[in-house]
Amino acid sequence: MELKRYNRQNRMLVAVDCIIFGFDGQQLKLLLIKRGFEPEQGRWSLMGGFVQPGESFESSAQRVLKQLTGLENVYLEQLYAFGDPHRDPLERTASIAYFALIDISKYEKQLSSEYHAEWFSLKNIPSLIFDHKEMIRMAKEKLRYKAAFHPVLFELLPAKFTLPQLQNLYEGVYESMMDKRNFSRKILSTGLLIKQKQKDKEGSKKGAFYYKLDKKKYRHLFNAFLKFVPDPGNIK
Amino acid sequence: MELKRYNRQNRMLVAVDCIIFGFDGQQLKLLLIKRGFEPEQGRWSLMGGFVQPGESFESSAQRVLKQLTGLENVYLEQLYAFGDPHRDPLERTASIAYFALIDISKYEKQLSSEYHAEWFSLKNIPSLIFDHKEMIRMAKEKLRYKAAFHPVLFELLPAKFTLPQLQNLYEGVYESMMDKRNFSRKILSTGLLIKQKQKDKEGSKKGAFYYKLDKKKYRHLFNAFLKFVPDPGNIK
DNA sequence: CAATTAATTGTCAAATGTACAATTATTAAT
DNA sequence: ATTAATAATTGTACATTTGACAATTAATTG
């Protein structure tokens, strides 16, 4: 007789949660929502949802992300599977956490009003449900790790950006100051940036030249091993 | 009225699978078992098991690992959550993959006979069930990444080991040759090794001095950022 | 004691990292 | 028109690390 299922084993709910990073030119931010159902209705939470039949974890995370931001084809990476038996008090629920990097200028505000979503500065995160605080801690750590060797932070920037903006971003991610001269030398030496003729005149009299990513080199070098940060600090 | 469960959502099985690395002094190896139940009974497989009620993913992996090797307190790290809806043809089953690094000399052979377990050279892995081949590919990649910056490969070695053995290990992990002089200079400069007065006389007339890990420095430096490998290659 | 084998040790040039400040472009005010 | 103010842009010298490369040493064997 053919087996039809694995008998005597317990099944559990599986959800995805998204840690959504954005950068407004000054600060690194996270997109959070107000949870719309019990338990913990009305409290701040990461955007998430249950994995549906026929859906992989990755496509589930993509679906959830599109629901909230309207965006597709964004940078999305699996962070960690959270499986503490009591992380959700109502019923055992595993959560596969993903982190996303989006260009904050492309995100559609109207969608997020439905979820009462808001951008929070990373230094000012409110109290969150379940283990979402821990998820964010790990996401920050992993972003630091990744960005030290791969040009992943460009995913947070618009098509045109300035060197001071880029340095702001790196300084925000690593919560430390960098030397302007050494920073631009290192970044430019990767050959990833193409200088534009236009300047950004906001926020300075002299204006700062715009740069664009060399998309071809970017794709080619993404998995190569560059070094964007001297010492990424103590990271796992 | 209080909610008791999340209604109208589908639950699924969740398992853990362990990619178990060992090093015999010459080659990097993986411990595989012959699957003992249907479907795919009798085929080669990673050691795994279903996550039980009340058990976290990590403790589930520890349990599975102890069942097969008799070992506790081994290096264990979550690799990735595999969730393709059809990865197990019988029933939807998620798998949280962990990779383990064990000292091959400590592992208890008698236990593994129960599971028909065998060590396989990484270059000679047999056909495997489900997505286990992909799990191994990712585990190798992650081990490379990790070992490039953290002294994690010492987990594979016995308490006393020689520099040539250590270099063999690194060369096995990176599938490339390294210069003896540069290798020992780099490794010794970390201050992690304590030279012993004894020599290992196996395999050479002159004999090679044993070294021990400085456990205190090891724990202290583990998350620090050392550089053990010149260029870890193209890795995610 | 000579021959063999593998471990151990050293040097130099090139590349990279680090610390540090003067100059330039633009706008606003006098 | 000149000056003052602001932030962007550019350069240099020194220290450290890396990478390429070969001679010497310790032990065993015939």
Task: Describe the model.
Two copies of one chain form a homodimer. Chain A is an alpha+beta fold and 236 residues long. Helices cover 28% and strands 26% of the residues of chain A. Chain A has six helices and ten strands; from the N terminus they run E-E-E-E-H-E-E-H-E-H-E-H-H-E-E-H. In chain A, the strands form two sheets. In chain A, strands 1, 2, 3, 4, 5, 6 and 7 form a seven-stranded mixed sheet that branches. A three-stranded antiparallel sheet of chain A has the order 8-10-9. In chain A, strand 1 and strand 2 form a beta hairpin. Chain A is elongated. The model of chain A has no long low-confidence stretch (mean pLDDT 93). The interface between A and B is large, with 43 and 43 residues. The structure holds a DNA duplex (30 and 30 nucleotides).
